[in-house]
UniProtKB/TrEMBL annotation:
<dbReference type="InterPro" id="IPR029068">
    <property type="entry name" value="Glyas_Bleomycin-R_OHBP_Dase"/>
</dbReference>
<feature type="domain" description="VOC">
    <location>
        <begin position="10"/>
        <end position="124"/>
    </location>
</feature>
<dbReference type="Pfam" id="PF00903">
    <property type="entry name" value="Glyoxalase"/>
</dbReference>
<dbReference type="InterPro" id="IPR037523">
    <property type="entry name" value="VOC_core"/>
</dbReference>
<dbReference type="InterPro" id="IPR004360">
    <property type="entry name" value="Glyas_Fos-R_dOase_dom"/>
</dbReference>
<protein>
    <submittedName>
        <fullName>Glyoxalase superfamily protein</fullName>
    </submittedName>
</protein>
Length: 126
């Protein structure tokens, strides 16, 4: 039944939920290095935060015993992967996979945030 009716459901924006050990340090990284702004926070002390930049949105959740995965937790498309890569290098961000042009039509790289969460960056090539 779902396959016959799912076409009628429109999906909107998605926002990855990312666990972090220190939500304030994560906030500082995403704001200072990547230019996000805080749109919402919840809890006392703060345990949840929404960050936005352009069409991208990230939901941070405080989890003091968080252990980063070895897989990417988020893929973000950007307009200029080379520029973002240079910014990450200048800021001392840990690069997991260097900037390359992929055979599937993207310029891409992977970095780790301060909690070790792997973020995959892609720029669609013409």
């Amino acid at each position: 039944m779902a396959s016959s009716t799912i076409a009628a459901v429109t999906f909107g924006r998605t926002a990855p939920g990312i666990c972090v050990r220190d939500i304030h340090a994560a906030h500082d990284f995403y704001v200072r290095v990547l230019g996000f702004t805080k749109a919402f926070e919840n809890g006392d002390p703060v345990g949840f935060m929404v960050l936005k930049k352009d069409q991208a949105e990230i939901h941070l959740s405080q989890k003091p015993d968080h252990k980063a995965s070895t897989v990417n937790v988020m893929h973000m498309f950007v307009s200029d992967a080379s520029m973002l890569y240079a910014i990450c290098e200048a800021e001392g961000v840990r690069i997991i996979k260097g900037l390359t042009e992929k055979d599937y039509g993207q310029r891409a790289f992977v970095f780790a945030d301060p909690d070790g969460n792997r973020i995959d960056i892609g720029e669609r090539l013409p």
